Amino acid sequence: MLTMYSTTWCGYCHRLRSQLDREGIAYTVIDIEQDPNAADFVMGVNGGNQTVPTLRFADNSALTNPSIVQVKAHLAALAATAADPA
């Protein structure tokens, strides 16, 4: 599952959401201004900063303000790792 940590006013978040939608990539959005635990996670992976969009992947890895190309590459790498029986 892909989770996007966002805010309602973040232009970069809106852009990435529309790109994910266009690519058919499923995700859940969590507003860090409404969820203190989400804000803590974002600050934890961003050196104390509430930088959004921050994406959290099924393996708990994270990307901050990624391009759609970076998101697709990370998802492909995770899928390849999951498919590798070694």
List the helices and strands and how they pair.
Blueprint: E1 3-6, H1 11-23, E2 28-31, H2 36-45, E3 54-56, E4 62-64, H3 68-83
Parallel strand pairs: 1-2
Antiparallel strand pairs: 1-3, 3-4
Question: What can you tell me about this protein's structure?
Answer:
The mean pLDDT is 95. This protein has a single domain, classed as Glutaredoxin. It has helices at 11-23, 36-45, 68-83; strands at residues 3-6, 28-31, 54-56, 62-64. Strand 3 (54-56) and strand 4 form a beta hairpin. It is of the alpha+beta class and 86 residues long. It comes from Catellatospora methionotrophica.
Distance between the termini: 23 Å
Would you tell me the structural class of the helices and strands? alpha+beta
What is the number of helices?
Answer: 3
Report the count of strand segments. 4
**Radius of gyration over C-alpha positions, nearest whole angstrom:** 13 Å
Q: Which stretches of 5+ consecutive residues score pLDDT under 50?
A: none
Largest sheet: 4 strands, mixed
> Judging from the principal axes of the Cα atoms, what is the shape?
globular
The CATH architecture classification is 3-Layer(aba) Sandwich
Proportion of β residues?
15-25%
Q: How many structural domains can be distinguished in the coordinates?
A: 1
What is the CATH class? Alpha Beta
Main sheet: strand order: 2-1-3-4
Average predicted local confidence, pLDDT: 95
CATH superfamily: Glutaredoxin
Please write the string of helix (H) and strand (E) elements. Answer: EHEHEEH
